[in-house]
C-alpha cells in the first residue's frame, strides 16, 4: 500500500501545473508583480504597471480569456506586466509582443518570460511601425484576437499602431489601448474612430487605484479604452456589425471611483 501511495504521489507531482499557469486573477496579478520586481533589478525602471489598478487588471484579464481567443498581439512589452496577465488569463493563447527594446529590463524580462512560457510567448524587437507590418507579411497564418496598444504614445505613433494592427485582426477581435486619457493617445483613438478603423465600446479612467503592496510608488491614474477593429472590408468572411457608424464625435474617458 505504501508503494502505491508513493507512486500516486510521484504521478501527481509530475502532472502538477506551476502556479503561474493556473488561471486566476490573483495569480495573474502575482505574476505581473513578479516581473515588476525583476525589472527593478536594473535600477533604471521608471514605467508604470497595469497591476496598480484592480479594475484595469480585471478587464484585461477577462478580455484575454475569451473562449475564441487564440492569439494575443501587443505593442509595448516594457517589463512584461500585461503579457503576464494575458498568459495567465488564457492557458490556450499565444502572445506576440512587439517592443523597441530600448531598456535593459525589457530585454532581460522578455528572456525570462520566454523561459516560463517557451511555446506561448514570442518577442519581436524593433520599431512597431516596421515590425508589425513585417510580421503580418511573414506570418499571414496569425490572426490577432486581442490587440493591446501601449507603445509609442505620440498621436502619429499610436495611430500607426492602430492602422497596422487592424490588418492582423481576426473577425471577432478586441482592441485595448492603455493611457487613453492622454491627449495624444486620445486624439489617435478618435482619429481611428473617425476613419472607421475601429468601433469604441467604452473608455475608462480609474480615479482611485489602490495597490495593496508597499514596494511600488503610489501610481498615477490608469486609463484605457476597449473597442474592436472593423475588418469586414479586409476579409469577406467577417461580418459587418452595424449599418450606421455608432462612434461618437468625441472620445470621453469615463471616471471610475471607489
UniProtKB/TrEMBL annotation:
GO molecular function, one term: methyltransferase activity
Example GO biological process: methylation
Signal peptide start and end residues: 1-16
InterPro entries per UniProt: SAM-dependent_MTases_sf
Short name of one Pfam family: Methyltransf_24
Gene3D superfamilies per record: Vaccinia Virus protein VP39
Keyword terms: Methyltransferase, Signal, Transferase
Protein name as annotated: Class I SAM-dependent methyltransferase
Provenance organism: Cladocopium goreaui
